[in-house]
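Model it.
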Amino acid sequence: ASATPAAVTPAAAPPGPATSGSPTPTPPSSPSTAAAAPLAPFAPRLVAVRLSPVAPMLDYPFAISSTVSREAASAARTFRSVVLNAAGAERLARAGFRTPTGRVGPGFPASSATSVDPYLGVPVRDQTRVARALRLWSAVSTPLRVLMLCDVTSSMGTYVRTAEGTVTRSALLAQAVPAGLGLLSPQSRVGMWTFAAESQEVVAIDILTATHRDEIERALLTVRRQGINRAKLHQSLLAAYAAMRDGYNPAGPNMIMVFTDAGDGDNTSAAMARFSDDLQRLADPTKAIRVVLIGVSVAGDDEPHLRDLADVVGGDYYSLGEPAELAPIVLTGLLGL
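Modeled.
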């Protein structure tokens, strides 16, 4: 189903104390929205204005994932047949939706802003954007196996300023993670470890059901920080890498996401060289494991070490200073898979 947008503008009213008489444009709306808007109680009278040139069509694609259960796939096919049959098409037409071919059905709401001519769409000629959109769709719809490795050293209790106020680094991370998890396929498997003097499993890697998601988010809110401020990130990352390698899922991407405010307590070049050697011994060329390092409100002098660490593991480094920044980071990381 699809809908061709129109602009909906409040009708001009006589000048008076509460209005200047000038219409105030609103965002583009579908024909169904334009038709229903005047019916809202106490709403101002609206006038639909046809856009010229024609705006891109609002599409509602329907796809059945190959990863859903047999029962879910059967229900989806039944729903699709109901939507596409004559009765379903008529009900959609009356609600302001066109058919998948861009044509209107009986009862389609007609107005000065609505064309009943077939709508064939606006071609997207930028193939780079098309390829990026396809990669993004593939990334967010493919089940991942993810291990979150979270810093719990004492410095994660340091207060930092965000757009929402002053919070600890740990609280910043806890606020950011739900949006990041929301971008992953429900069939993804996610777990959580913490690290300070040593690493520890907090939430086992499992399917990202609503219950499992709640368990991870609750763990982030309740985990206790350690009384030390020298993290053994190299050692913890090696342990996490070994665990991900041993439980490798060949059916989809495997990823370690490291959340830290400073990195390893020993940031000398000798320590980095030892870590690199140890990682090479663990690596299996047939089991690709992507590592993404995310600095949680990192001080400027600690960032170079984290960027060097990202280079060693063949991954990427991102800076997280606001809760809302994690979702774009996750999307960028998925595009790199």
